[in-house]
Amino acid sequence: MDYNKLFAEEIVKNLDGTMSLESIMGLVEKPKFDGQGDLAFPCFSLAKSQGKAPHLIAGELAERIKHPVFEKVAAAGPYVNCYLKKSVVSKDTLQTILEERAAYGVSDLGQGRNITIDFSSPNIAKPFSMGHLRSTVIGNSLAKIVEKVGYIAVGINHLGDWGTQFGKLIVAYQKWGDEAAVKDNAIPELLALYVKFHEEAKDDPGLEDDARKWFWQLENGDLEAEELWTWFKDESLKEFSKIYELLEVDFDSYAGEAFYNDKMAATIELLKSKELLTESQGAEVVDLTEEGLPPFLIRKSDGATLYGTRDLTAALYRKENYHFAKSLYVVGQEQTLHFRQLKLVLKKMGYDWSDDMAHIPFGFILKDGKKMSTRKGKVVLLDQVLKDVIELAEKNIEERNPALANKAETARMVGVGAVIFHDLKTERQNNVEFSLEAMLRFEGTTGPYVQYTHARACSILRKSGMTAEEITAVGLDDSYSWEVIKDLIAFPEMIQKSFEQSEPSVIARYAIELAQDFNKYYSHVKVLEDDEHLEGRLALVFSVTVVLKESLRLLGIHAPDEM
Ligand code: ARG
């Protein structure tokens, strides 16, 4: 039940059409202080249009509004404060969640339309960086959030599997490479070859020419070049898929940059026919001077295409094949200019749907306040980080609950969940400090804390001996349960907000608040006492398990029943 809307409707009824339901709903807010009720309506804009003092209007409105769900409606200065009737509202809310379960909070905003989400998108033959980890967990969560509000998510891994660096890699491999070593330890070996290439090229400029030649051969279908490239790509994907398996992330498409090779000529033709290609120092570009941005590079003087050419082609391909309602790119903030240019070029081409494309940027992962670097051969191997965190979680569980049945599986859920939650609880544009200890704490604002609260609520239900089917909600009116009920009511709104802002942190923070309010409730109220409110309290505990589990699912995290 949307109580904001109900309150707004009651206000509208008493205004004789001077303000629309929509604009009133936009103004209804949470009162700033305790004791001022549950909903507040400020009368300032009404006062302006009616030429009356706001406190007079508030007084009149408060006098007139009556509804069985409202305990009391009272004016406080320029505000109309509404006090919900706890017993009615709590019963109604709990009954809804008992019935809807995991579907609680679902909406049909998207009406089955597609949203493409370009996320993760690591570069072949290079380590999976911390930035790619952020893109992966944010994108994966966004995919779940958009589906919750009725869209279909199309997850695309736009692999960085093309570019002049493959010419360099081929040269380096032919000169210094070792097949067995690459098979054994692909990414560090390939990275080492790449680093060596750059070192040697300082003294031997001929290497760069060789690299350019090999990349040209690759672009023109040379068999030897293609065979090596395919091999590098397969070995890299094997490594990446270890990470995806641990995180339980999958994609609808792995169409990376190379996928667009045979489609770029058409893009260039299209640009030409629209008279948008100009020459600049031998290269072909789309001029963006009018828009105040540097030119967007389409083709280099040697005929080679670029990252931007492939993204332009990919955008056209995605529109044509997925008919997206929105197209999201979960990519670090250092590519902001690139995506602004990309959208503007499409706009210049006459495609208004470029307005539906959005870059979803995010900050860095820091270690001791410094950017975690994967360059200079200093590789942080992510699947190792994940394995370490799972091991730590296992130790933790061993100490807390040695009798637990499936410890290894639970440790995986807790360890991986800790890493994901740590990332998603921060607004994505901010930087995140990397700390295994901080992630794994069972107290504070962590994934394990939310999971543990969920498991605790599950255990109360087990103790009660009752199943959700047997519980009938009854109204509750104490202040501790009211805090929890208000959180439960807010869930659909939170989903909506996280969708609108493409911001999983809204849900992560919400889950922490719900967990905290539930723990407060649990420490003050005897849930299992046999009185007339027992089923109401059990309904509340059950509802908390449902909403915590669903919140975690939307973040890409499991909620074990026991831990
Ligand atoms: N591979 C790129 C990188 O690691 C990210 C690609 C993002 N997606 C895109 N369509 N440009 O920087």
From TrEMBL:
Domain Arginyl tRNA synthetase N-terminal: 5-84
GO biological process, one term: arginyl-tRNA aminoacylation
Aminoacyl-tRNA synthetase keyword on record: yes
Chain span(s) of sequence motif 'HIGH' region: 122-132
MF GO annotations: arginine-tRNA ligase activity; ATP binding
EC annotation from Swiss-Prot or TrEMBL: 6.1.1.19
SMART domains per record: Arg_tRNA_synt_N (SM01016), DALR_1 (SM00836)
Subcellular location(s) of the protein: Cytoplasm
One Pfam family recorded for the sequence: Arg_tRNA_synt_N
GO cellular component, one term: cytoplasm
Annotated keywords: Aminoacyl-tRNA synthetase, ATP-binding, Cytoplasm, Ligase, Nucleotide-binding, Protein biosynthesis
Ranges where the DALR anticodon binding domain occurs: 450-563
Entry keyword annotation includes Protein biosynthesis: yes
SUPFAM superfamilies on file: Anticodon-binding domain of a subclass of class I aminoacyl-tRNA synthetases (SSF47323), Arginyl-tRNA synthetase (ArgRS), N-terminal 'additional' domain (SSF55190), Nucleotidylyl transferase (SSF52374)
Catalytic reaction equation(s): tRNA(Arg) + L-arginine + ATP = L-arginyl-tRNA(Arg) + AMP + diphosphate
Similarity remark: Belongs to the class-I aminoacyl-tRNA synthetase family.
HAMAP family xrefs: Arg_tRNA_synth (MF_00123)
Quaternary structure and interacting proteins, as annotated: Monomer.
Protein name: Arginine--tRNA ligase
